[in-house]
Amino acid sequence: MKIKDQPLDFRPREKLVRLGSDNLSQEELLAIIISTGTKGKNAIQVGKELISKFGENLLTTSIEDLCEIKGLG
Questions:
Q1: Interior CA angle at 41 toward 5 and 21, to 5°?
Q2: How many Cα atoms sit within 13 Å of 69 on the Cβ side?
Q3: CA 70, CA 19: separation in Å to the nearest integer?
Q4: Using N-to-C axis directions, what is the helix angle for 26-34 and 43-54, rounded to 10°?
């Protein structure tokens, strides 16, 4: 499901404004940075994939490795 098709209360940007960053998951925070997903995968799902693949090493992951994730470029 596209993020824009979700109820406002569940959209990451709106949740950030309403509840603050401490109340968002890592995937939701990444979705805000990523902004858009790809066909068949929304930004939250891309964020989940990033965390799943790189975990705590995400901040030190190379651009080349990040670009291997469909939806990032």
A1: 70
A2: 23
A3: 30
A4: 120
Tell the burial category of 19 from Cβ atoms under 10 Å away from its Cβ (0-12, 13-18, 19+): exposed
**CB neighbour class for 25 (10 Å; exposed up to 12, middle 13-18, buried from 19):** middle
Q: Phi and psi for 6 in degrees, rounded to 5?
A: -80, 155
Q: What's the CA gap between 57 and 36, in Å, rounded?
A: 22
Angle between helices 12-19 and 26-34 (to 10 degrees): 120
Quick: pLDDT tens for 18-31: 999 999 999 999 99
The residue with tokens 């470029």 is 73
Average pLDDT over the chain, rounded to whole? 91
User: Which pTM does this prediction carry?
Assistant: 0.83
> Please, are residues 54 and 26 in contact by the beta-carbon 8 Å criterion?
no
